[in-house]
TrEMBL record:
Keyword Transmembrane helix tagged: yes
UniProt name for this protein: DUF1574 domain-containing protein
Source organism of this protein record: Algibacter marinivivus
UniProt keyword terms in alphabetical order: Membrane, Transmembrane, Transmembrane helix
TM spans (from-to): 7-27
Length: 302
C-alpha cells in the first residue's frame, strides 16, 4: 500500500511539473507569432471604426491605413490569407465579443470561389492553435472537433505542435504586414508567371456549400443586430468580369447590406503591371482600388 501511494505521489508530482511547463509554453507561444492580430482582438485591443475581413485578396488589395486617411475612420485589416467565409464569420464573432463593435465592416468577396469548395480557402486553425490559452479559442476548437473536453481542465490537452516552435516567425518579403494589418505586395516574385484569363464559364449555384451560405447569412445578421454597416466588395482580377457570379451574389444580400464592385471601366485593371499574380493586386493597384472603396463610403454613408 505504501509503495502504491509512493508511486501515486510521484506520478502526480511529475504530472504537476509537466502541466506547469506546458502552461509556460502556452503563455509564451502568442508572443512569438509574426501575426498577432487575433491576439489583439482577444485582448480587447481592436476597437476600430472600420474593419476589413477577407482572404488574401482582402489582406493585399485593401490598404486599411489609406482607407483611414481618406474616410477619417480608424481602420484595420483582419483579413487572413487562405481563409474562407466560415473563418471570417468566426473573426467577426470574436471581434464583437471582445471589443466595441465597429461602425463598418468591409467584407471582400472571393469572386466565383466564395461559396463553393475551394481547397486553397480553409478555416485557419493554424491561427488558433498558438492562442489556445484563451478559453474562447479553446471552446471554438472543441466545437470544431479539434480538441476534447479535457482541454477545459488541463493545459496538456490544449497544447499543439505549433506551440513548441519557440522561435519568432520570419517576415514574408513579398507582402509584409503594415501597421494597419494589411499585407500589400511590395516585391515581385520573378517565378510567378500569369496571363490574362478570358474566363466566360457561368457561375453554377449548385456547387455552393450550405455552411458557407449560412456563414454569410450569419455575418449579415451579426452586422444588423450590432448596428454595423456591412459593405461587400467585389475586387478586380486579371481576368474577365464574372457577371453571373455577381448576379447570384446579389440574390444572397439582405436589404440592409451594401455592395460595391470595382470600376470595370478602369483600364488599370487590365494592365499586368498592377498585379502581383492573377488574383492579387500589387501595391500600386491596391491603392487605386482602395480609393474606389473610400469614395463609395464617403458617398454612401449611413
Amino acid at each position: 500500500m505504501k509503495s502504491f501511494l509512493k508511486y501515486g505521489a510521484l506520478f502526480f508530482l511529475f504530472f504537476f511539473i509537466i502541466e506547469k511547463s506546458v502552461l509556460f509554453v502556452l503563455w509564451k507561444a502568442p508572443e512569438l507569432e509574426q501575426d498577432r492580430r487575433l491576439e489583439f482582438v482577444l485582448e480587447g485591443e481592436m476597437n476600430k471604426d472600420l474593419i476589413v475581413l477577407g482572404s488574401s485578396k482582402g489582406a493585399s488589395n485593401i490598404l486599411a491605413s489609406q482607407l483611414g486617411n481618406e474616410t477619417g475612420l480608424a481602420s484595420y485589416n483582419l483579413s487572413y490569407e487562405g481563409s474562407h467565409i466560415v473563418f471570417h464569420h468566426f473573426i467577426l464573432k470574436t471581434l464583437i465579443k471582445h471589443n466595441t463593435a465597429p461602425k463598418k465592416i468591409i467584407l471582400l468577396i472571393d469572386t466565383h470561389y466564395q461559396f463553393i469548395n475551394e481547397p486553397s480557402l480553409v478555416f485557419r486553425y493554424d491561427r488558433l492553435y498558438p492562442l489556445s490559452k484563451y478559453n474562447h479559442i479553446n471552446d471554438e476548437l472543441i466545437g470544431k472537433g479539434k480538441k476534447n473536453m479535457l482541454s477545459k481542465f488541463f493545459a496538456l490537452s490544449r497544447v499543439n505542435r505549433s506551440n513548441f516552435q519557440l522561435s519568432e516567425k520570419e517576415t514574408n518579403q513579398y507582402n509584409p504586414f503594415d501597421n494597419s494589418g494589411s499585407r500589400p505586395y511590395v516585391k515581385r516574385n520573378l517565378k510567378k508567371k500569369f496571363e490574362y484569363l478570358d474566363d466566360t464559364e457561368p457561375y453554377n449555384p449548385e456547387f455552393e456549400l450550405k455552411e458557407k451560405i449560412e456563414a454569410f447569412n450569419n455575418i449579415q445578421k451579426l452586422c444588423s443586430v450590432n448596428d454595423i454597416e456591412l459593405i461587400c466588395v467585389i475586387p478586380p482580377n486579371y481576368s474577365t468580369y464574372n457577371a453571373t457570379f455577381v448576379e447570384r451574389f446579389k440574390v444572397l444580400l439582405k436589404p440592409e447590406s451594401k455592395w460595391v464592385v470595382y470600376d470595370t471601366l478602369n483600364s488599370i485593371y487590365k494592365q499586368k503591371e498592377y498585379y502581383y499574380d492573377q488574383s492579387h493586386l500589387f501595391k500600386n493597384g491596391a491603392s487605386v482600388f482602395t480609393s474606389e472603396i473610400s469614395d463609395f463610403i464617403k458617398n454612401n454613408s449611413n
